[in-house]
Amino acid sequence: MKKNYDKFKEEIVSEVRKDFLQRREERKPLELQWRLNMNFYNGNQYAEISPVGDIEQYGKQYYWQEREVYNHIAAIVETRLSKLNRLKCGVSVRPFSGDDSDVQTAKLSTQIIKALCEENNLATLLNTASTWSEVTGTCFFKTVWSPDKGRTVGVDKNKKRVKEGDVEISVVPPYELFPDCLTTDKLEDCQSIIHAKAYHVDEVKNLWGADVKGEDVNVFSLDNAQIGGGLGYNATLPNMIDSVAHDMCIVIERYTKPTGEKPDGELVIVAGDQLLYYGDLPYINETNDVRGYPFTKTICLDKIGCFYGTSIIERLIPLQRAYNAVKNRKHEFMNRLAMGVLTVEDGSIDTDNLEDEGLSPGKVLVYRQGSTPPRLLEVGRVPVDFQYEEERILSEFTTMSGVSELSKYSDVYNNMSGKAIGLLVEQDETRLNIATTSLRNAVKRICEQMLRLYKQFCSGKRMKRFSEDNGEVELAYFTASDLRSDDLVFDNENELTDTLENRRNMVLELVRMGIFNGENGEVSARNKVKILELLGFGNWESARDTDETHRKKALKENLDAGKAKLAVAEYDEHDLHIEEHIKALLESKDDKAKTALDEHIKQHRLAKLMNGGMQAYEEQNEKEQR
Q1: Environment class of residue 301 by beta-carbon count within 10 Å: exposed (0-12), middle (13-18) or buried (19+)?
Q2: 554 in Cβ contact with 543 (< 8 Å)
Q3: How is residue 286 annotated by DSSP?
Q4: Is 1 helix (H, G, I), strand (E, B) or coil?
Q5: Cα Rg for the chain, rounded, in angstroms?
Q6: CB burial of residue 594 (10 Å; 0-12, 13-18, 19+)
Q7: 32 phi and psi, to 5 degrees?
Q8: At residue 465, what are phi and psi to the nearest 5 degrees?
């Protein structure tokens, strides 16, 4: 029996490694383009893909040749990244129904999502993924359940801490993910996905408890190469090269989607010649409780008929080469103007001395009697075509990238109106719509997967700490059954089109129109707080929304109805409480809760009537005293 199992493991390991090597070979042309993009972004712009399938550097044709780099690609990518980093991508959970309990559960789920995003530092992960996506065209997120996260709940027999587990999000560069078919557009349509990552053998031992033999693994690293410079000097440029890491091994995770034969899919993890895991897909993270891939894709630009996206750098590489060539040829011409070009009769002077020292000021030039003295050759002026071509290429940079001078150089023309500048900014943001939409959809899918992982792995009561909009910190206890809905919607529109400045102007215009005024023509305290929030100032210390606090108190009483005795406080805003209690009474299906709420509403009405009578009595008494 053990022999058969060992043979089965060997076959599985061999088949997975063979599958991985085949996919890596098929994807090699794409990897070369990614490496070329990274070289151009980092400043090594004298690299090219050779016919033998590698990245090579082409050197100077002449010792005096100018080979400086004028990196506009980096400026364009950094401008695009700064705009993408403005995305907040806040999402909320839509209630399963209109019942008050479902509404409260949706609010709880929304707070859990926000807490998980902060714990995993999702904003930083989005920035990292955007950089990979802009340079290579594609990046992935991996959302898994980590048993080593969360609070400590006990100690095992080996005196190792046992934790309750929590969601973990990581960024997966495109180099690590291999689809079964490169022509499949969507990640969900792939029949299988391989995630291959290099680990140190000690890390494999800690994670999987397996002793794997270390090997040399090729990794990417930066190196400086003297491939730039000009006449009389050299310049080093950063160069992406292959380097070797020792005592490493490649851990191959192959995920296979559910099929008729395997309704729960399949996950195989292989490291070296060992099988680390073989079983079903671990995560129920798709709709209708279906197991799926833990990955989410985001792209820079669509590439039709390809699993991976394309980078804006691929379009800019020809322009960048042309711009470098124009600038360098222009400087070579200026060198000739500044240093001069001598014509010398053969044998008239010591040419070796002239080559070494040149025509320095005050130099005594001795030439042979009767010969023609050396003279400077007329080289003319720098042709104006160089300037025209330089300006033409710069305008093409704007056309191809969609990033104008206004965004890239903060250059505002004096004769432009505010409306024209606004239209120009709006056009810039429109060119980023593909990248922003992909990133927002990725965030939405990540949040869906986080909620589904909590539904699957949360056993017993869990506690989460989160902060309210007013800055208060609250603790929430919940179970997996409380997370009934994973229908997510975005809190706001795209931040690139719906900017804070636009929102402020719209709110101020509504204030001028009196939209926020009450029946008495004045803005209520509650609306003042809301206006401050819309303007981006949040809740100031002196602007506490007491009405909202009363409403929260009433909602908590609705949940406690039928379970604990409800009391009416003297400071309660009775109208707000009565409104919330009546809504809960109409929606509730629990007879015990209905009876408790009915009695509680009567107490509020009685307290309101007594307060009104006391107030009328005091007013009448004051009049009589006058």
Answers
A1: middle
A2: no
A3: B
A4: coil
A5: 35
A6: middle
A7: -60, -40
A8: -110, 130
Mean pLDDT of the chain: 80
Which residues are registered as beta bridge partners of 343? 375
Of the CA atoms within 13 Å of residue 584, those in its CB half-sphere come to 32
pLDDT tens-place string over residues 548-596: 777 778 888 887 787 778 888 877 888 888 888 888 888 777 788 888 8
Read off the tokens for 613.
């009578």
Cα–Cα distance between 487 and 484 in angstroms, integer?
9
| Beta-carbon contacts of residue 154 (< 8 Å; ≥ 6 apart) | 161, 162
Determine how β-strand 192-200 pairs with β-strand 177-179.
antiparallel
Q: Which helix (DSSP H) or strand (DSSP E) does residue 475 occupy?
A: strand 473-478
User: Residues near 116 by Cβ (< 8 Å), separated by ≥ 6?
Assistant: 166, 167, 450
| Nearest one of 110, 130, 101 to 491, comparing CA atoms | 110
What does the block give as tokens for 508?
Answer: 């101020």
Choose among 51, 43, 457, 492: nearest CA to 283. 457
Map 545-560 to HEC letters: CHHHHHHHHHHHHHHH
How many Cβ atoms sit within 10 Å of the Cβ of residue 9?
15
Residue keyed to tokens 């002026």:
381
One-letter amino acid for residue 168 of the chain: E
Token pair in block for residue 155: 């100690």
3-state DSSP assignment of residue 211: coil
Q: Give the residue, 286 or 236, on which the prediction is more confident.
A: 286
Q: How far is Cα 294 from Cα 284, in angstroms, rounded to an integer? A: 9
Are the beta carbons of 349 and 409 closer than 8 angstroms?
Answer: no
CA gap 256, 265 in Å, rounded: 5
pLDDT tens profile 168-185: 999 999 999 999 999 998
Measured between alpha carbons, how far is 267 from 277 in angstroms, rounded to an integer? 7
Distance, in Å, from the CA atom of 411 to the CA atom of 428, rounded to the nearest integer, reads: 14
**Alpha carbon distance 420, 455 (integer Å):** 51
